């Protein structure tokens, strides 16, 4: 049996809690844990903290699959025509192109990991969101300009669902 050895120029890395670049969007807090530069463009991982009533409008991603992994609390996650009540430990896979969204319909904060493959969509959050920093108050939910979010979303292949 021949042993195959693979060499990579990549190095292991560690990101401590609270050290990812963070932004506020629609009242939710998004922290970039892994951007595509750290994973050779293969994936991006964000941590999302969702307050009661929080969550984005339904939308899709034409270029990325998305995985939701709930780490705390409960979220109602819609994907296509299905809605899942996702509690801590739940994982939901949404293939590229499918309309989806999530909402925190509880009275407590929820947290989840958002995993995009391939990477790159975290740039949308960094362009649209308001930088979160110590000592800066939580912005009003309405402070995210939805028209700007739609335009920048389209730049990254993401489109909000049209309301009927």
Automatic annotation (TrEMBL):
Q: Which InterPro entries match?
A: Cupin_2, QDO-like, RmlC-like_jellyroll, RmlC_Cupin_sf
One Pfam match: Cupin_2
Superkingdom of origin: Bacteria
Q: Where is the Cupin type-2 domain?
A: 48-113
Question: SUPFAM superfamilies from the entry?
Answer: RmlC-like cupins
Which chain positions lie within coiled-coil regions? Answer: none
Q: What is this protein called?
A: Cupin domain-containing protein
Organism equals Providencia rettgeri
Biological classification of the source: Bacteria, Pseudomonadati, Pseudomonadota, Gammaproteobacteria, Enterobacterales
């Amino acid at each position: 049996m021949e042993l195959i050895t693979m060499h990579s120029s990549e190095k292991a890395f560690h990101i401590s809690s609270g050290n990812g670049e963070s932004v506020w969007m629609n009242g939710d807090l998004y922290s970039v844990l892994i951007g595509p530069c750290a994973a050779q463009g293969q994936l991006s991982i964000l941590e999302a903290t969702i307050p009661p009533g929080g969550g984005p409008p339904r939308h899709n991603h034409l270029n990325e699959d998305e995985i939701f992994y709930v780490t705390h609390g409960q979220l109602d996650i819609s994907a296509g025509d299905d809605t899942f009540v996702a509690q801590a430990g739940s994982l939901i896979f949404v293939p590229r192109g499918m309309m989806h969204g999530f909402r925190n319909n509880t009275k407590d904060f929820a947290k989840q990991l958002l995993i995009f493959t391939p990477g790159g969509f975290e740039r949308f959050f960094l362009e649209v969101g308001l930088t979160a920093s110590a000592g800066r108050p939580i912005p009003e939910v309405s402070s995210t300009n939805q028209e700007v979010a739609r335009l920048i979303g389209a730049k990254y292949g993401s489109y909000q669902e049209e309301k009927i």
